[in-house]
Amino acid sequence: MKNHILPFLLLLLVSAFQTVIAESQPQSSDKAFDWIQKVATAPRQYNYSGTFVYYADNYMESSQVTHKVDHEGEFEKIEVLDGSTRIVFRNNDEMKCYLPDSKKIYTEKRWFRKFFPDLLPQPSERIKENYNIQIKKQERVAGYDGQILMLVPKDNLRYGYKFWIHVDSGLLLKAAVMDKENIIEQFAFAQIEIDGEIDASILDPDSSFKATKNWKTINLSTVLLDEGELAWRLGKLPSGFKKVAEMKRNLVGKSLMVDHIVLSDELASVSVFIEPVIKDTSSPVPGFYSSRGAINIYVRELENNKITTVGEVPLNTIKLIGDAVRLQ
């Protein structure tokens, strides 16, 4: 018996040693960036449907997503399965959010892609300036083989990321935001079907919500502006962050249009909202405010305007960006 066991143990030892060697060998920067590009493009190329779970700060929420691609573009439905009912329908960039409990429908044109598993914009090579991209081993997620990709920040101005990527399609199966070794927030599919047939009626809001005359529709408009149209300028920004867009938006609960500046380092995004302080209302309390997961908030007042900076970056970075806002 010993003679049979010894070769088997040696085989396991050699296999384990080869695995360690393979994982420790440096991967080419180009190959790693190819994975990033696959993650960015996959959600626009494949049908998929499944249930994913969001977890952060001891809070967990599950959602069901159905996504279809055809000659007319993308169609998507995301339904939150926990708590009050929230259902989002998307036709390319046109979005409708249904809140059955309050019988309200919010419509908005999506100007920035950021819904799991569609978490990455179209990245450029600039992402390598801020992150070391490392190809790690493979792990199974929701029954699929997933390639692990680590994005390790080169400074303390941003969080790290860990992606589990479906090896065939490039679709994200799982994603975690990391503060060094600690997971701040995480999305993960518990079940998913990739590239299957999807009935178009599932993605039609009119098929789900009949006779909505008692419902109130609220149109949230966004006006994209050219560079420099806003009365605000940005001073010195944290390394790697650049302005992506500036716009005016009417937001839920706001009576006036709000100025909105968006910044990104090709992965993390930060929004700066600027609105006048309304007379006879309490002034904003400057300082930091916590949110769930990776989102941090910083508020300051300048020239009778409230400046709120919100983003998935550390507190020191959110303050540097918020303090960089200047009136032209």
TrEMBL record:
UniProt signal peptide: 1-22
Keywords: Periplasm, Signal
Gene3D superfamilies, sorted: Lipoprotein localisation LolA/LolB/LppX, MucB/RseB, C-terminal domain
Domain MucB/RseB N-terminal: 33-205
Compartments it resides in: Periplasm
InterPro entries reported for this sequence: MucB/RseB_C, MucB/RseB_C_sf, MucB/RseB_N, MucB_RseB
Location (main, coarse): periplasm
Pfam families xref list: MucB_RseB (PF03888), MucB_RseB_C (PF17188)
GO cellular component terms, semicolon-separated: outer membrane-bounded periplasmic space
Any one GO molecular-function label of the UniProt entry: antisigma factor binding
Domain MucB/RseB C-terminal: 229-325
UniProt record similarity statement: Belongs to the RseB family.
Name of the protein described by the UniProt record: Sigma E regulatory protein, MucB/RseB
Lineage of the species this protein comes from: Bacteria, Pseudomonadati, Pseudomonadota, Betaproteobacteria, Nitrosomonadales
